[in-house]
Amino acid sequence: MAASLSELVRPLLTHSALVIFTEDCTGRPQKKAGDDGITDRVSIAELDTLRGSMPEGSAPLWLPGATIGSEVRPVAVWLAATGALLVLTDPEPGPESEWAGAPARPGTVSEDGPESGPARSIAVIGQLWELVAAGIRRQVAAAPPAYLFDSRAASAERARVIADLTDAHATTLESLLAVLRARDASAEAARQNAIDVTAKAMVRLRAVSDRDRSLSEEPVAQAFERLRDDLRPLVRFGDLDVQFIEPPLNGRALPGEVAHAGRAIVRGAVLALIDQEGVGRVRVQWDCDGSNLLIRVRDDGPGDLTTDVPSVSRLAGRVAALSGSLEVEATAGWGSEMVVTLPLDAPVAALAPAAEWGLSPREQGVLELVASGARNRAIAEALLISENTVKFHVANLLRKVGASTRAELASLAR
C-alpha cells in the first residue's frame, strides 16, 4: 500500500520516503516505502509528535525541519479525517506539480496562490490520502480472515520484541543505577546527574512500552462505544430497534485485532439477522471474562436461522481466523441468537519436546514462559524463583538450543 501510494504521488511531489501511521491497523500501525535509512528508523514517538503539531481543521502542514528517522529533515504532512497520518520526507515539486515554493517558516500549506506554496498538487494529494485512509478503515472493519490471522501474528511478534527490548534496557539501566549509587563512588554531582539521566531514560522506555500497548489494545467499554457508533446509521435511518447491553467498565483490555473483529462480526450478525422477514428488534451484548470476548446478538424474527446461510458462513470464517467459535440458537416463533466467543490471546503453539535439547524440567518450564512472551520478572513470580535464576536458565537455554536472542529462542521452541 505505501509503495503504491508513493508511486502515485511522486509525479506531484517527489520524496525520499513515505510513511503512513494509522491506529486502525493494530498489527502494523506504520506502513512505509522509500529510503531504508528513514523507514527503518522512524518511530511512533516521532509520528506522534508530528501529528500533535497538525493545525485544527486537518490542513496540510509543511515543516522545513522535523525529526523523522532520528534526523532533522523537511517534511510534508497530511492528517485524514480518520486520524491517519501521511508523511512525505524531503518533498520537492514533481514533474506534474504546480509547486512554486514552500513557506520560509513552518506553517500550513494553502491553495490561495503560488506564494503560499503547493497549490493543486497539495490538494490532489490530500484528496488521495482521504480516500486511502478511508479505505484502510474499511478494510480493517471488514476484517477478512487472512487479515485477522496476519494481524494477530504481527501483534504477538511485536509484543515479544517489546518485551525483549524492555528487559534488555531495564537490566542495563538497573545495573548502571546500582553502580552509580555505590557509596565508594566519587564526584557526587556527576553521580547524581547520571542517576537523574538514567532514571529519565527508564521512564521514557516505559512510556514507549505503554504507547505500544495503547496502539494494540482497547478498553472493552471504549471498544463497545465504537460499536454503537458503527451501528448508529441502522438506528437513525431504519425502522430497526437496536438495544445495547453495556459491558462492565473495568476488566482486561481487548487486543486490537479482537476489538476490530468483534465489531465487524457484530455488524455482520446484525445485517444477517435483519435480512430475515419480520425482524424489528435486535439486542447486542458483549462481555469479557478475562480470557475471551463474549458476543451475543439476538433478534425477534421467525427463529429459523442456521449456519448454512451464506452471510453466517462468512462470519464463521472470520471467527475461525481468531480461533473462536460461533453458534446459532434458533427457536421457532421466538427468534434467533448468534453466540460468538473470541479468545483474547493467540493459541500457544506446542513446544518442541524437552528431550530434543536435553532440558531439565525447570528449563522446560522457563522455556514455556519465554515462548509465551513473559518477561523475567513474570517468570520469576510464576516459578517462585529469583530474576537472577531466570536469567541463568535463559542463558542455558540459549546455549542448548543454539539461539542468539529470546525471540529466536521462542520461535525455535515453537
From TrEMBL:
Matches recorded under SUPFAM superfamilies: ATPase domain of HSP90 chaperone/DNA topoisomerase II/histidine kinase, C-terminal effector domain of the bipartite response regulators
Residues annotated as domain HTH luxR-type: 352-414
SMART domains in the cross-refs: HTH_LUXR
Keyword Transcription regulation recorded: yes
Transmembrane segments: none
UniProt entry keywords in alphabetical sequence: DNA-binding, Transcription, Transcription regulation
Biological process annotations from GO: regulation of DNA-templated transcription
InterPro entries in the record: HATPase_C_sf, Sig_transdc_resp-reg_C-effctor, Tscrpt_reg_LuxR_C, WH-like_DNA-bd_sf
Region span, Disordered: 90-118
Source domain of life: Bacteria
GO MF terms held by the record: DNA binding
Official protein name in the record: LuxR family transcriptional regulator
Species this chain originates from: Cryobacterium algoritolerans
